[in-house]
Amino acid sequence: MRVDKKKYANTIPGVRAGDYIEGSIFKFKNKYRAKITIGNKAITKAAQTYDLAIEELLKLNNKTENNDHVTEKVVFLSDLIDRYFDYRKTMHKNIIDENSLENRIKNMASIKKEFSMLKLSKLNEYTINEIHDFIANEKTNGKYHAQDTLKRKFQLLYKAFEFAYENNLMDKLTYDVTQKTKKLVRYIKSKKDKKEFTYYAPEDMMFIQDMLEEREYSNVSLVAMLQYHQGMRASEVLGLPFKNIDLLNGIIKIRQVATKFGIKNVPKTEAGHRDLVIAEFMKPIIKNYINNNMDIFEPDKLVFPRIKMLRYPKRTDKEYFSSEEIGSIFRRVFKDVEFPLRKDGSKAKTNNVESHNFRRSFGTNAANNGVPPQVLCSVMGHTDFNMTYQHYYLDNETNIRAAMDNFYEKMLKKIS
Questions:
Q1: Residue 73 in contact with residue 62, Cβ under 8 Å?
Q2: Which residue numbers in the chain have pLDDT < 50?
Q3: Euclidean distance between CA atoms 129 and 181, whole angstroms
Q4: 309 and 219 in contact (C-beta within 8 Å)?
Q5: Which residues of 16-47 are buried (b: 16+ CB within 10 A; e: fewer)?
Q6: Rounded Cα gap, residues 227 and 308, in angstroms
Q7: Looking at the whole model, is its pTM more than 0.85?
Q8: What is the structure's pLDDT at 1?
Q9: Which of 71, 134, 222, 338 is the most exposed place for a label (fewest CB within 10 A)?
Q10: How far apart are the C-alpha atoms of 285 and 374, rounded to whole Å?
Q11: Facing residues of 36 across strands?
Q12: In sequence order, what are the beta bridge partners of 24?
């Protein structure tokens, strides 16, 4: 029912003017009664007058009875967020520092404000997805939030939901809905404006290789080649053991990756678990590398261990080399280096060499030369073609015309 709360706002704590409230008022045996249902339990309070019954109903909207124990009732999402952080301040004051907690409160401030009037009883897939959309589309100073910020906001939101269920502030049915929608969060990606990646033409790649060789980073050069010509992630190349290179059958098996946290047996995605056909011109290059590095050759050992990636490796127990570390080599070698003009007079858009752009350039070259999207998606180890599409350019007239001419030429051969 709806009650004019303006009349009672000065007397009942927590009352907000003009809100809907749960419950009803009825007259029984010359007395007014305020009734509210919480879960499977109906709570009724008697009053002499209608106004007093209204006050009782408003009180019931702010309190719930649990046997003899009375606790403040959480009605709105904003209330829940406040209660959750109050709990964190009280129970975790020796675990989490005050500044960190304040930052988390700030992260949730916009959600709390936007959905201040959303009742927990109204939480369902639709309303929770509205919260998801709000978080994904929110901007600060005109810019979308980074993926890490989105992840932090979602984590706090669902921790608040769990807190609500554990403290009997949310029923089981609603909690089950939150657990269902929680599984969708991993598919929500940041819309943060992405800088246009630099495409490396074959001439650019030759220049990059020459520069690395000149600076005595020949093995780093081969890592870049495997990214550029095979479409591998840097972490996949650096995590590659000798046993997963099958030169006889021309296959590279992607089964593990090297990250800054160590070697992981599971690639970035399930689709990342794949076999790649080795380009014919790459076979002798890989074979030559293996022959020149027999001192480290063991089936389970890494093809590109730390000792082979640095000119002057320091003593360490850390065998692997991460993509972050190889990125620092590129930044150091190509700092303030000017790329030469290409044969067509064009030039790479930036002089900052980034490792992942080799892989993106592979996607561009493959797409521009007629590799079907489904095949390219599989080769690059993507679960979603939309992700593959972000890894190449096929949007200018020249590339579109070249791709279609290639398609028509192949079709003409089939029908002639």
A1: yes
A2: 1-6, 8-20, 64-72
A3: 8
A4: yes
A5: eeeeebbbebeeeeeebbbbbebeeeeeebeb
A6: 18
A7: no
A8: 46
A9: 338
A10: 29
A11: 43
A12: 35
